[in-house]
Description:
The chain has helices at residues 3-14, 24-53, 59-164, 197-209, 220-223, 231-237; strands at 179-183, 188-191, 215-219, 228-229.
Amino acid sequence: MSNEDKFFFDKIAMNPDKEFKVFGRDILAFKQQLDAQKAELDKLHANLADLVSERRKLDTGLQVERSRSEELEKQIATLQGDYKSRDLKVHSMEDEVASKLKKMENEMAAKIKEMQDKIQDLESREQELIKEREAVIVERDAKIAAVQDERDILVAKLSEMQKMVPKAEPVPDIDDQAMVRACMTCKEYMLVDEGNYKNTRAMILFDTAHRGHMLGTLTHGEVKGGFLPKTRAYLEKVK
Length: 239
């Protein structure tokens, strides 16, 4: 036994209840030592048989050999006990490793189950989002259709209103110095044709229609482009 081994076994002897970390190579080396010692033990037993046969002749030597045999038996018992302890420790380590492996398998199975549940939740959420998006599209299309219908109605109403709006009188080629009766409030005017009875009656109707407004007699050049001509409209009202 090397000094290193002796030191290790001394530590075990001092702390028999303490757990020591042992490498596989140490266990193999110890087994080789054990096999060698077992062979040596067999040899010692053979020597012991020879010594017994010579016991009567060598009483003094027999006593010495007996002591030596007892010492060897103690060592064998110690080695056998250590071997048993190491064997139990190996089994304990195997059980611990198996327990850890089982725990790891359970943890992995739980994680896989958790991931599968998350995937299922994501797929369910994806379907919900697809349905929500389709509902939004349907609602949007309905709103677009409603807006288009409303636009069509407004376009039709605008067309009807445009038909109802009276067309402006065509503006004849009139001298800018020609006199007109104008309403500054409504921005409308009619030509003044002095001596024309119908025109005079039409002007009376014009003033009546714009009673309370700001009325005045201006030149055609002052109202041209900014006022609406109403000469024909009022002339047509004269009976």
